[in-house]
Specification:
By secondary structure, the protein is α/β, with parallel strands linked by helices. The protein folds into 3 domains: 70 residues, OB fold (Dihydrolipoamide Acetyltransferase, E2P) (Beta Barrel), CATH 2.40.50; 136 residues, 3-Layer(aba) Sandwich (Rossmann fold), CATH 3.40.50; 76 residues, Ribonucleotide Reductase Protein R1, domain 1 (Orthogonal Bundle). 32% of the residues lie in helices and 21% in strands. It is built from 10 helices and 11 strands. A 5-stranded mixed barrel has the order 1-2-3-5-4. Helix 3 crosses helix 7, helix 3 crosses helix 9 and helix 7 packs antiparallel against helix 9. It binds guanosine-5'-triphosphate, magnesium ion and zinc ion (ZN). The site of magnesium ion has 5 residues, from helix 6.
Length: 333
């Protein structure tokens, strides 16, 4: 057989396959949409991201599992609509950012909910979340909830002296709720924070119609019971899109990666004016002489507690090597 004949045969085969494909796909549309809820391996997608349309319940294609990528709430996706209310996620459109915890993509703003009352939030946990948000070019807001019980003065004082937006709230008395709604307006935000601090309660206070389940705190442990299990976008006042996420008792270490290690100083926003002004290039800002950051700490321009978190995080990231990144990726769900 000549090469030309062989080519023709191949081309014929390709057209026949495409014809067959088209026949099979006759009843099927490829459309784009946005994932607004994830629950037990199902993704609820709104066509064109329009929450007024009927959502389509999708499964992810097997190739995502193979590639170790999970679709996330907030993802814009191409789906195959089977026209019976179900479909398949075919591909994920490029993301602005993505998080392991909370498991969401394309966030404008991370709302870190903390509490000075039980369960008290650890300052290092707050600083790690702030660093991860800064690394991902995501704005952060820090909320001190339960201020009817404890006004979290220690925490408040630390962050008041930083460029980070802060707000005291109470889901019980309604303090700060209007201001919170203002911060959320026209943005896609996710609530995160240790379990039991009142993330779901705040959402209910913002929009009582939501009626999201909240949990009692176990007195013995001083922890919540992980009341929120699934991840879902709520729309409030037709302008604020908010994801309530399950709380946690320890930090997800897979966010601690080589990129954070390499860019750590700039993720502490109040360090920025001093970076590049140290006596030594490549200064780690830990205990070096002539360090502009340390000088600023001494002068009280940077809070001691923030620098302490920086050093702790620096030490935690120090042993991280290239091969561990691959490991981390493989461990991702
Ligand atoms: N006094 C007081 N109690 C609150 C406040 N906010 C929440 N609570 C209580 O704290 C408990 C936990 O609240 P949730 O809203 O379930 O906390 P969560 O952060 O959503 O917890 P997870 O879903 O487990 O992460 C509930 O008993 C709430 O009633 C508050 O501002 N003041
Ligand atoms: Mg909750
Ligand atoms: Zn330095």
């Amino acid at each position: 057989m000549t090469l030309e004949n062989r080519m023709e045969e191949l081309n014929n085969n390709i057209s026949r396959t495409e014809e067959l494909d088209n026949k099979l796909n006759n009843n099927i549309d490829n459309i784009t949409g946005r994932i607004w809820k994830a629950l037990s391996g199902f993704y609820y997608v709104y066509p064109d991201g329009d929450m007024k349309k009927k959502s389509i319940t999708c499964r992810a294609r097997g190739k995502f599992r193979k590639d170790k990528i999970s679709p996330l709430v907030g993802d814009r996706v191409k789906i195959r609509d089977l026209r019976d209310g179900t479909g398949y996620i075919e591909s994920i459109l490029p993301r602005r950012n993505d998080f392991v915890r909370p498991a969401v993509a394309n966030l404008d703003q991370l709302v870190i909910v903390a509490s000075g009352a039980v369960p008290k939030t650890d300052v290092y946990l707050i600083d790690r979340m702030l660093s991860v948000a800064a690394l991902k070019n995501c704005d952060a807001v820090l909320i001190f909830n339960k201020c009817d019980l404890d006004r979290a003065d220690d925490l408040y004082n630390i962050y008041q002296a930083s460029p980070i937006k802060i707000l005291r709230t109470s889901a019980v008395t309604g303090e700060g709720i209007d201001e919170l709604l203002n911060l959320l307006k026209n943005k896609f935000s996710a609530f995160t924070g240790n379990t039991g601090v009142g993330k779901s309660s705040l959402l209910n206070a913002l929009s009582p119609g939501l009626d999201i389940q909240t949990g009692e705190i176990s007195a013995a442990l001083g922890r919540g019971r992980h009341t929120t299990r699934h991840i879902e976008i709520y729309k409030i006042n037709n302008s604020a899109e908010i994801v309530d996420t399950p709380g946690f008792s320890s930090f997800e270490t897979s966010e601690l990666n080589l990129e954070l290690k390499n860019r750590l100083p700039e993720t502490f926003l109040e360090f920025l004016p001093y970076l590049g002004k140290c006596a030594f290039t490549g200064c780690a800002h830990v205990k070096e002489t002539g360090c502009a950051v340390l000088d600023a700490v001494r002068r009280g321009e940077i809070q001691q507690s923030r620098h302490a978190s920086y050093v702790k995080l620096y030490e935690e990231l120090k042993p991280l090597r290239e091969w561990e990144i691959k490991n981390n990726k493989n461990n991702k769900k």
